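User: I'm putting together notes for a lab meeting next week and I want to include a structural view of one of the chains we've been expressing. I don't have a solved structure, so I'd like a prediction I can at least talk through. The sequence is below, exactly as it appears in our construct file.
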Amino acid sequence: MRAATPGPSGPSGSSGSSGPSGSSAWRPDGEHEVRGHVFRDEGGGSSDEDAAATVPAVAPSRMTWRKLTFLPVALIVLLLATWLWFEQADLDALTRNALSNGQVSKALWQHIELTVISTFFVLIIAIPGASC
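Assistant: Thanks for the context. Below is the predicted structure for the 132-residue chain, given as structure tokens.
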């Protein structure tokens, strides 16, 4: 077994705890070794430089009012342009039948119902398997 080698700021002649490899080393306050990995406790140590380095800086918010309003405005413009195009489009009889009398809204609600039902069954199958 080797003798401990103190660090530059450590006391001379002190012996630390021995690690799993059989070597011992001096460790600062709040630092320990578990299964060969060195860990440092939060708030451990008395150095002011360490305390200043661990304080996270507050990052500026990445969401601005421009980012929050651009997407909804762009979607409204796109939907309005699509509606205007359909209003002025010259449709044949088959297309007019497909788009009239609430056929689009009926198909939309059928799609939503199928999505909800399939989501329900996926959750029923997935949740019991997640608890294992």
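A couple of points you could mention at the meeting. The longest strand covers residues 31-34. The chain has two domains: 1-42, 65-130.

User: Perfect, that's what I needed.
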